[in-house]
Amino acid sequence: MWCKHEPTMETSTICVHGAENNTSNTGAVAVPIYQTAMYAHPGVGRSTGYDYSRTQNPTREYLEKTIANLEGGCGALAFPTGMAAETALLELFGAGDRIIASDDLYGGTVRLFDNMAANRGIKVDYVNTSSLRDIESAVSPGTKAIFIETPTNPMMKVTDIAGTSAIARKNNLLLIVDNTFLTPFFQKPIPLGADIVVHSGTKYLCGHNDTLAGFIVCADGKVEEKLRFIHNSTGACLSPFDSYLLIRGIKTLALRMKRHEENALAIAAWLRSHPKVKQVFYPGLADHPDIEISRKQASGFGGMISLETDCEATALKVLEKVRLILFAESLGGVETLVTYPLTQTHADLPKEKRERNGINERLLRLSVGIEDAGDIIADLEQALG
Ligand SMILES: *Cc1c(COP(=O)(O)O)cnc(C)c1O
After folding, report:
1. How many Å apart are CA 260 and CA 250, to the nearest integer?
2. What CATH number has the domain spanning 255-384?
3. How many CB atoms neighbour CB 199 within 10 A?
4. Which has fewest Cβ within 10 Å: 32, 157, 216, 370?
C-alpha cells in the first residue's frame, strides 16, 4: 500500500493517515506513545523487532514512515532538532571533502559549517545557488555534495532543484535540500532528484511553536542504511512524546500551509504599497526573479516574508510596537512571529557576508501565522506607524 517513490495518495491524506498503523492491536486511532527505553525478548535469539529505543521506538518509527511517505523517500530519521539532523549528515564526510552550499542559509547551518565542519577538515564553498552556472563552476575534485535551501533564509532566493540535481548526477555528488520553508506539502525535492532532504521539524511540521525536532529523509536505501548507523551510534533520536506531538501536528499540515500562504500573499501585497517598506522578499510576488522556477518545482510559495524598511528606526519600532505579532526567533507555527535576522537568526554570520546578502539593520522577517490576515495587517499598520 505504501510505495516509495510513487505515493498512491494525495499529500493531505498522507498528513492525516501517515503510514500503516501497526503500533497497537487495540484499534487505537491515535498512535500510542511508547514511553519505554527497552523491550523484553520473548526468548533467546528472538526479538519483537524492537530492542532498545535509541535504535527504534514504535512511536518514532511511525513518524519516520510518515515523513518518508510525505517526501516520497525510502526512509526517514527523526532527531531532537534540525541542527542534530545536520550534524549527523556531516558524519557522511571527512577531512579533505568539500561541500557546495547556498550563500544565503539559515544562520545555524552556517555556524555548523564554519566551525564543526571546518574543525574536521570539511570545506564549504558558498555560492549563489540561484545560478546553475555558479554551482557548476564551483565543483572541484574534492567536492562530495551540494547543500541547498530553497527558498533561502532570509532573502527568499530560489534554487532550481532539478537543474542542481543534474549537476550533482553528472559529478557524482549528493544533493541535500533543506525543505523546512515549504515542507512536502508545497515542495518534494526527492522526486525532483534530491538524494537527501533535511528538515527543522520545529517549524511547519510541528506547526505549533511548542516542540523541537529534526528530520533526514533519504531517496536511497544505501544512504539510509549509513545514516541509520550514524543515528544509532551517535544517539540523537527524537523522544516518544515529541514524536507523538509531531504526528499530531502533521495531521493539519495541509490546512495550515494553505492558510499560511493565503495570509502571506495578502500581507506581501499590502506591505508592497506601504511607504515605509522599501522592498518585500516573497517568492509569490509576480516580479520575484525566480517566480517561474517556483511555479515549476513547488505547488505554493509558503508563509515566509522578508521586508526591508526605510530605516533602522522603523525596523526597531516595529519590533517594539507589535502586539498580536510576537517578536521571537523561529518560524512555521500558528502564531505570527517577527524576527530581526541581524541580531537573532543570523547574528553569528561574518559582518561582510551578512551585508553582501542584504541582512542589514533595516531587514525584518515575518513568519505569517494562521490568524485572520486583516488582524495581522492591522497590527503591522499600527507598528509601522
Ligand atoms: C530552524 C532551522 C534549522 C535548524 O533547526 P532547529 O530545529 O532549530 O535545530 C535549519 N534550517 C532551517 C531552514 C531552519 O529554519
Report:
1. 14
2. 3.90.1150.10
3. 28
4. 32
Condensed to tens digits (0 to 9), the pLDDT of residues 257-302 reads 999 999 999 999 999 999 999 999 999 999 999 999 999 999 999 9
pLDDT reported for residue 20: 87
User: Best mutation site among 102, 177, 180 for ligand 1, i.e. most ligand atoms within 8 A of its Cβ?
Assistant: 180
Task: Check whether the bond before 151 is cis (ω within 30° of 0).
Answer: yes
Ligand 1 lined by 344 (C-beta under 6 Å): no
Note if the bond before 289 is cis, omega within 30 degrees.
Answer: no
pLDDT in tens, 322-338: 999 999 999 999 999 99
Name the CATH topology of 11-250: Aspartate Aminotransferase; domain 2 (3.40.640)
CATH 3.90.1150.10 domain locations along the chain: 255-384
User: Is the CB of 153 inside a 6 Å radius of any atom of ligand 1?
Assistant: yes
Quick one: DSSP state of residue 32?
Answer: P
Closest ligand 1 atom to residue 330 Cα is: 1
Distance CA 357, CA 375 (A): 31
Tell me the pTM.
0.96
Q: Which residues are catalytic?
A: 54, 106, 178, 203
